[in-house]
Automatic annotation (TrEMBL):
Statement: the UniProt record of this protein carries the keyword Disulfide bond: no
Pfam families membership: ABC_tran
GO cellular component, one term: membrane
InterPro entries: AAA+_ATPase, ABC_transporter-like_ATP-bd, ABC_transporter-like_CS, P-loop_NTPase, PstB-like
Database matches in SMART domains: AAA
PROSITE patterns according to UniProt: ABC_TRANSPORTER_1, ABC_TRANSPORTER_2
CDD domains listed in its UniProt record: ABC_PstB_phosphate_transporter
Protein name: Phosphate ABC transporter ATP-binding protein
Length: 269
């Protein structure tokens, strides 16, 4: 899946063209007195898969949730610092979090289709955001999204069936299709394969590789093998700090920080 030469060329090209999608500066997150994210600075590239790795509780999911303001829904969470999406501060009071989450979609650990038909799972977002003028346009969006979710062929003859009638792996691809239906620019994935078997995992990983042609994809994973397979850039978190960030190939073969080395060699975590 990953040809290191191609990745370096692509990543360098992205850097050359200054294709930074998300810029975080001096980000702190507190849950009450717990300082969960400390002084995080990071530039996440467009059309790239970025993996967040690190031991349990190091803050990967917390930082991921900052990028689409999902932490707003947690009463005791407090965020400081700056996160820019295409240069715009996503915490500016003028930003509507609902609109932001259409642009910065999210896929969760457990597939969570709505208790609706396959068609309505996809059509829900485009309907509330007014993306289709009529049924024909909505049909088009539904088909396009299911194709991007690499699940169209499996469901095209049963769009009226409940989303929950699909297998776990199919449900997760349905949720990815649902996330892309609102034309996002960034896709956040929080351990999207942890509830899937190896075959479904391979299918979702292949899909992630395809998605980076269009989106900036950020994935939290506990699996270093998965990070190595699907990502071009990796960020290693430890105790709330972003310890090291760089080309995935460098992080795994030539880490600069002793904490990264300990983690990837299995000494911490
Ligand atoms: N909703 C919450 N309320 C209070 N504290 C939280 C909440 N979510 C996370 N935390 C705390 O923030 C810290 C970072 O947790 P987080 O879930 O971001 O880590 P993680 O690296 O994603 O862990 P894991 O790999 O186990 O999912 C931990 O100390 C955790 O207890």
């Amino acid at each position: 899946m990953n040809d290191p030469r191609q990745i370096s060329a692509q990543t360098e090209k992205a850097l050359d063209s200054n294709d930074i999608k998300i810029r975080a500066r001096d980000v702190q997150v507190y849950y009450g007195d717990n300082h969960a994210i400390k002084d995080v600075d990071v530039d996440i590239l467009d059309k790239t898969v970025t993996a967040f790795i690190g031991p349990s509780g190091c803050g990967k999911s917390t930082f991921l949730r900052c990028i689409n303001r999902m932490n707003d829904t947690i009463d005791i969470a407090r965020i400081e610092g700056e996160i820019l999406l295409d240069g715009q501060d996503i915490y500016d009071p003028s930003i509507d979090p609902v609109q932001l989450r259409a642009k910065v979609g999210m896929v969760f650990q457990k597939p969570n289709p709505f208790p609706k038909s396959i068609y309505d799972n996809i059509a829900y977002g485009p309907r509330i955001h007014g993306l289709a003028r009529n049924r024909a346009e909505l049909d088009e969006i539904v088909e396009k999204s299911l194709r991007r979710g690499a699940i169209w062929d499996e469901v095209k003859d049963r769009l009226d069936a409940p989303g929950t009638s699909l297998s776990g792996g199919q449900q997760q691809r349905l949720c990815i299709a649902r996330a892309v239906a609102t034309e996002p620019e960034v896709l956040l994935m929080d351990e999207p394969c942890s509830a899937l078997d190896p075959i479904a995992t391979a299918q979702v990983e292949e899909l992630i590789d395809e998605l980076r042609a269009r989106y900036s994809v950020v994935i939290v994973t506990h699996s270093m093998q998965q990070a190595a397979r699907v990502s071009q850039r990796t960020a290693f978190f430890h105790l709330g700090n972003l310890v090291e960030y760089g080309l995935t190939s460098d992080i795994f073969t030539n880490p600069r920080d002793s904490r990264t080395e300990s983690y990837i060699t299995g000494r911490i975590g």
